[in-house]
Design goal:
There is one protein chain. With about 160 residues, this protein is mostly helical. It has one domain. The longest helix has about 30 residues. The termini are close together. The relative contact order is 0.17.
């Protein structure tokens, strides 16, 4: 039972994290908007970089990108919360039922991984050259987030045995 409770707690912790990130971006929209705008505008990358043609300066596109990020963070949170609830409800069930209850959590953790890996590391970091910016480089933070999400996902999908007693 302790392993099941541990998995539930880890998924809930990821749900809390994604919730706080999304809530912060929703309730204090202007706090991270400049981050998105500068990354997309590529105005703080190396001045002689040959990839500057990729920059997006159109404000509505910058806001749309930020809204997409918030939507993905929110969906990650919701799916992880639903997953934690499903796991909690199935905590005393047979191994097969408990394993099947993991699906919402797997979806949430995967979406979170893809948000921070594809969105921040690949698109922001590589396509828009975020790694070149001393001021607006979110690659280290994104890496920490995606590693945590992936570790919880790997732990969660491990098969669980039947409960004893």
């Amino acid at each position: 039972m302790i392993q099941r409770l541990s998995k539930i707690a880890c998924v809930a912790a990821m749900a809390l994290f994604a919730s706080l990130v999304a809530l912060g971006n929703i309730t204090d929209y202007g706090a991270n908007l400049p981050f998105v705008q500068h990354v997309l505008a590529m105005d703080t990358i190396f001045p002689d970089s040959a990839i500057r043609y990729r920059a997006i300066h159109t404000p509505w596109l910058q806001h749309a990108a930020y809204a997409a990020i918030i939507l993905l963070e929110t969906a990650t949170a919701v799916l992880c919360w639903l997953g934690a609830i499903a796991l909690f409800r199935a905590r005393r069930a047979g191994a097969g039922d408990f394993h099947r209850s993991k699906n919402p959590a797997i979806a949430g953790l995967t979406l979170g991984f893809l948000t921070w890996q594809a969105g921040f590391m690949s698109i922001g970091g590589e396509w828009f050259g975020m790694w070149m910016s001393e001021t607006w480089n979110g690659v280290p933070s994104a890496f920490r987030f995606l590693c945590t999400l992936m570790l919880v996902l790997i732990y969660l999908v491990q098969k669980d045995g039947e409960l004893s007693g």
